[in-house]
Amino acid sequence: MTSPYFNPFQDLIFDDQFCFLTGDLTTEKMSVFPEWLMEHFKFGEDKIEMMDKSKSYRYQDLQLPCSPRVKKAFEELEENMQTAYKKGFEGMSELDEHLIFLWSGRMVYGMLYCEMQYESQQKLRLRETFDLSETLRERFGNFHLMLQSIVEPISFTGEKPWSIALFPLKYSADIISYRDDTVNLLFQFGVNGFGFIACLQDNGIIGEKHRDILEKMKGHVLHPLQFEELFARFHYSDYILQYKPEYKIENTDAGISIEAVPVLPTENRPVFGFWDEEIFAQLLTNYWSVYGIQRGDIIQFQKPFLSFLENPYTKDFVNPESIDLPF
């Protein structure tokens, strides 16, 4: 189905005069990252690099052109998120997952938009053509359509397009943990009291893969090491995912409905590829090195793979209070 709404990935439109979400002509802007969050954690002046590492921006300078109605909708969303944030895990757990999707998506798509704009301007300066593969156009276009549900009559039915795992998390009050993967549409966010991981376009299959450990975690307040390990598991699962998310998108009298198409593995092609412990250990090292844990500590000859989530022998969940490392 062809959407009646604006799709910037059709003609690769990332110009400042067009609203990033609706395509409306505008002179207004909104920040990629919530202003209250930057102010609270004082990271607006910090630098963030573009993917090619050749350019960096201050967080507070990353802006999205937006129409007045889009700006108002996100301001209302921020009020809801800030209210929930102040209540910690309990407040966040009361939110509809759709709101968490939109809040995460604003930042992930915002970074993606800035990347697209930067790349297109670079190509223009070099007198080269800016283009994306059909796979990326489709993935990002679907994601953009889902974000438009904040202002357009777009609803989600049946299976949701995302996996979102929310849990209590032990962090010092002045620490914020944030990561995103704009190409694969992943988001990690942790502060004092709660953390969550969002796979924004996996049709729920990665959350389903890790359902067992998510069940074991319930009733526990995670240590940051466990949070990092969990995100590494989600991240690597996305890497070995051999399934292209597909959607049933229909026009209805009430607007557009989106339903995630169930995953149907075949005999010759499982949903996930081979889980390589060597590669996963290297990924995990990237997250744990701040604690002084290196690859040689994680994977050793004739020793079980190091995990702070599960006992390697019994598969019982590791009590966060037993982890004698700072948080």
Could you give the topology of this structure?
Elements: H1 8-11, E1 29-31, H2 35-41, E2 47-49, E3 56-58, E4 63-65, H3 68-86, H4 88-93, H5 97-125, H6 134-147, E5 154-156, E6 163-169, E7 177-181, E8 186-191, E9 193-199, H7 205-209, H8 211-217, H9 224-239, E10 247-252, E11 255-260, H10 277-288, H11 295-298
Parallel strand pairs: 5-11
Antiparallel strand pairs: 1-4, 2-3, 6-9, 7-8, 8-9, 10-11
What does this protein structure show overall?
Helix 3 (68-86) packs across helix 5, helix 5 packs across helix 6 and helix 9 crosses helix 10 (277-288). The longest helix is centred in the middle third of the chain and has 29 residues, at 97-125. This protein is an alpha+beta fold. The chain has 11 helices and 11 strands. The protein is globular and about 60 Å long. It has 2 domains: 1-154, no CATH class; 157-327, no CATH class. The mean pLDDT is 93. It has helices at residues 8-11, 35-41, 68-86, 88-93, 97-125, 134-147, 205-209, 211-217, 224-239, 277-288, 295-298; strands at residues 29-31, 47-49, 56-58, 63-65, 154-156, 163-169, 177-181, 186-191, 193-199, 247-252, 255-260. The strands form 4 sheets. It has a 4-stranded antiparallel sheet, with helices on both faces.
List keywords for this structure.
alpha+beta; 16% strand; globular
